[in-house]
Amino acid sequence: MRTRLLFLFRASISLLLFLLLLTWSAAEADDEGGQPVIADITLTASSGQLRLSAAVKNCFTKEMLEGVHNAIPVTFRFKVSLERSRSYWFDQDLEELSVNHTLSYDPLRREYQIDFSEKDHPKTTRSLAEAERMMAELKHIEIAQLKELSSGASYVLHIKATLAENTLPLSMHSIIPFTSLWNFETDWRVIEFKY
Question: Does the reported pTM lie above 0.85?
Fold first, then answer.
């Protein structure tokens, strides 16, 4: 009797561990091929500026990359807003900005070009992985002057990424049926902090 109970206990523990592992691996697979999300958000204070770094995960689809290789540029638009949080009153809007990253491909040179609205010059690369990384990353974007922030006050930063609607020329929306597969938009990420 005792050995039978011990066997049932071990079998139920093994089954429980198997189900837990199965659930964990399904969540991992969902993470890798899931919806686009803003991740790795970092706020820093340097050179008198509040700066933001972040990255979008799961933002490229096969259809988007095929479009890029067929000379259709892709533009990601990052929307960022900063508010001062005030109790018993409406929050005060401090800054609102939009940052665009546009990816295009030159088949003759076999290189990708990424245009950044926050930088003066575009970057080129022959590596698709590097082009995707540059498109999806925000690095040290100036959000606000530190002198505009009050010491000890609470602030809220909102950030979101979308595929810009003007990516395709107007006539191509009716010709290319897969454009709806290109649509992506992350949820707003909200970061609360004190300065």
Answer: no
